[in-house]
């Protein structure tokens, strides 16, 4: 349950739709981004890996590819302020040449976990 809630919050944050996104299912939110649920899991794993392998620094990047679907992307640390990292996601869903840019922010909590925040 915790993983599903976490994924739902990340999806809402990626879309930047706030309260409107709360009424949508996670599968619908991900589909509107042009990603499959499996693509979203690969993107989320790459984001986590970027933040948990040493201290993040501005300009640092991590690429991801879902070999099963062909969707791909790059995550870049855009800014670091206080205890928060601002990420830029460049996403290219399978079947399209168009790259979408989405921004998120994760802040470190008292336990050292990176939490997606508005």
Précis, in short:
With 118 residues, the chain is of the alpha+beta class. The chain is 36% helix and 31% strand. Helix 1 (2-15) packs parallel to helix 3.
Offer a few descriptive terms:
4 helices, five-stranded antiparallel β-sheet, single chain, 118 residues, 5 strands, alpha+beta
What does this protein structure show overall?
- With 118 residues, the chain is α+β, with helices and mostly antiparallel strands.
- It has one domain.
- Helix content is 36%, strand content 31%.
- The chain has a five-stranded antiparallel beta sheet.
- Helix 1 runs parallel beside helix 3.
- It is globular.
- The two termini are 21 Å apart.
- The N terminus is likely disordered.
- Derived from helix and strand composition plus strand pairing, the structural class reads alpha+beta
Shape: globular
Topology as a string of helices (H) and strands (E): HHHHEEEEE
Poorly predicted sequence stretches spanning 5 or more consecutive residues: 1-9, 15-22
Q: Report the mean per-residue pLDDT as an integer.
A: 80
| Rg on CA atoms, Å | 14 Å
Write the layout of secondary structure elements.
Elements: H1 2-15, H2 19-22, H3 26-33, H4 37-52, E1 61-65, E2 72-81, E3 84-92, E4 100-108, E5 114-116
Antiparallel strand pairs: 1-2, 2-3, 3-4, 4-5
Helix pairs in contact: 1-3
């Amino acid at each position: 349950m915790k993983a599903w809630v976490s994924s739902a919050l990340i999806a809402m944050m990626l879309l930047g739709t706030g309260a409107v996104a709360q009424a949508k299912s996670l599968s619908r939110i991900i589909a509107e981004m042009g990603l499959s649920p499996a693509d979203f899991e690969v993107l989320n794993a790459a984001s986590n890996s970027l933040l948990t392998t040493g201290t993040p620094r501005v300009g640092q990047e991590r690429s991801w590819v879902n070999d099963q679907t062909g969707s791909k992307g790059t995550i870049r640390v855009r800014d670091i302020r206080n205890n928060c990292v601002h990420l830029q996601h460049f996403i290219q869903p399978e079947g399209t040449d168009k790259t979408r840019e989405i921004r998120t922010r994760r802040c470190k909590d008292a336990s050292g976990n990176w939490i997606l925040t508005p």
